[in-house]
Design goal:
The protein contains ten helices and eleven strands. By secondary structure, it is an alpha/beta fold. The protein has two domains: about 190 residues, 3-Layer(aba) Sandwich (Rossmann fold), CATH 3.40.50; about 90 residues, Pantoate-beta-alanine ligase, C-terminal domain (Pantoate--beta-alanine Ligase, Chain: A,domain 2, 2-Layer Sandwich), CATH 3.30.1300.10. α9 runs antiparallel to α10. Bound molecules: pantoate (PAF). The site of pantoate (PAF) has 10 residues, from β2 and α6.
């Protein structure tokens, strides 16, 4: 397995693979890998084929974190990540430094408002913005988040030149926005959305689960309980008014002492358009703070 930190080297490799007809499967991550990520790697390997290559990027992207969010304490363990990638048969891990990805980055990570640039505009001033699907849910709660995601993913696509890229369904809105960006900007890459992996008790796998110490780990199961409650309601009643279900789920979340609902939404899976009546096939997503940790989950009902 090769570890690449330079954009120029990664692009040269990618161009060589293109010239020699090797398919490239790509899994972009922020590291602190878990079984959920490794299932995406497996999917990328399948898609790239035996003679293809698999690239995993590990980069905690500063532009997708708001000023009050957990960028500096986001969990990192590169040695462990490399070991997992090696064992999974990854060909290249691309792990660039901030100064490589965003030249001119200000050294101080502090900025006072969401609008204040994290970067010195002399060094970096181009962003990719999706204007419709990114307005609701995560986009409403984290105003600059998707701009950071689409920008870094576009950059990574231009660096890794993948034929196929695999994203997790756990970030449903993100995957939907990436598909839209790829279609709108004509990136020659196929997007695969792979299923969410859950712990045995239902908690969706996430690098942020590391923050769930003591009783918070138990309380975090309320997200899965909320999904199961909605699933049961749809099965029982066929069509449930979205507002009624939201209010029931708000009450359910409140039963855990350290849980605070950020949002719960019911929507069409492809367009993210909200629905008034929740039915079989409607998609549900929610974000809940468990203590200081913000968790997200979603499912088709
Ligand atoms: O889902 C993630 O881990 C990140 O948002 C991504 C796609 C790697 C971009 O930084």
């Amino acid at each position: 397995m090769r570890i690449v930190t330079s954009i120029a080297t990664m692009q040269q490799l990618a161009k060589k693979w293109q010239r020699t007809g090797k398919r490239t499967g790509f899994v972009p991550t922020m590291g602190y890998l878990h079984a959920g990520h490794m299932s995406l790697v497996k999917r990328a390997r399948q898609a790239a084929g035996k003679s293809g290559v698999v690239v995993v990027s590990i980069y905690v992207n500063p532009t997708q974190f708001g000023p009050q969010e957990d960028f500096s304490k986001y969990p990192r363990d590169l040695r462990r990540d490399f070991k997992l990638c090696r064992e999974a048969g990854v060909d290249v891990v691309f792990t660039p430094a901030d100064k490589e990805m965003y030249p001119g980055e200000t050294r101080s990570r502090r900025c006072e408002s969401a609008d204040e640039p994290r970067f010195d505009k002399r060094g970096y001033s181009t962003y990719v913005v999706e204007e419709k699907l990114s307005q609701s849910m995560e986009g409403a709660s984290r105003p600059t988040h998707f701009r950071g995601v689409t920008t870094v993913v576009a950059k990574l696509f231009n660096i890794v030149l993948p034929d196929v890229a695999v994203f997790g369904a756990k970030d449903w809105q993100q995957a939907t926005i990436i598909k839209r960006m790829v279609a709108d900007l004509n990136f020659p890459v196929k997007i695969i959305v792979a299923p969410t992996l859950r712990e045995r008790d239902g908690l969706a796998m996430s690098s942020r689960n590391k923050y769930l110490v003591g009783d918070l780990r138990r309380q975090a199961l309320v997200l899965w309980r909320a999904i199961q409650t909605a699933q049961a309601a749809v099965k029982r009643l066929k069509a449930v008014p979205a507002e009624k279900l939201k209010s029931d789920l708000k009450k359910l979340i409140k039963t855990e002492p350290d849980a605070r609902l950020d949002y719960v939404e019911f929507f069409e899976p492809d367009t993210l358009a909200p629905v008034a009546k929740v039915m079989r096939g409607t998609h549900m997503a929610l974000a809940v703070f468990i203590g200081n940790t913000r968790l997200i989950d979603n499912a088709k009902l």
